[in-house]
Amino acid sequence: MTAPHGSQTPSDWVRRWAHLIPDRPGGALVLDLACGHGRHSRWLARQGCIVTAVDRDADALASLADLAPLVRPLQADIEDGPWPFDAQRFDAVVVTNYLWRPLWPRILDSLAPGGILLYETFAHGNASVGKPSRPDFLLQPGELLQVCTGLRVVAYEDGYLDDPPRYVQRIAAIGPEPTTAADPPPRHPLRAAG
Hints:
This protein has helices at about 10-15, 40-45, 60, 105-110, 145, and strands spanning about 30-35, 50-55, 70-75, 90-95, 110-120, 150-160, 165-175. By secondary structure, it is an alpha/beta fold. The protein has a seven-stranded mixed sheet with strand order 3-2-1-4-5-7-6. Strand 1, helix 2 (about 40-45) and strand 2 form a beta-alpha-beta unit. Residues about 1-5 have low confidence and may be disordered.
């Protein structure tokens, strides 16, 4: 029997680059987009973040009720309904295993100055090893780099992973910094791999 999605280990990519989420008094504000059962929301809350967990599946979101007030579940159809965050900005936006290209401008606009985008999803080539296989749900070579023009790309990968077999593209990119000299940019310390 397969474990529920929420009990799965968070993405190695998210765990590897989460240290770049800016520290804020009271906890950094994080948007976990298309969160499913909230494997990343749970992990990020344990790291001290305040997470808005968005999905259209009310049953999946119900599994996060025990994490209030650190995790704020929000049921929303972000593909066919209104974008619920027009005036809100986040210190981090996390997206994994989800692609809906019309949302790119909204996702990027949701980043606070100096906030980080952690994005990982299936890429071109995945049809050879499984699903998703439709081009609509697969990033094309270099697509994340193109989308993140104007952000500072800290890390980017595009290739094949085992366990389970899949082609992915992933990026860690920091949003534009504040433009005034009086506000120094947040420090995003890099860590050695290991």
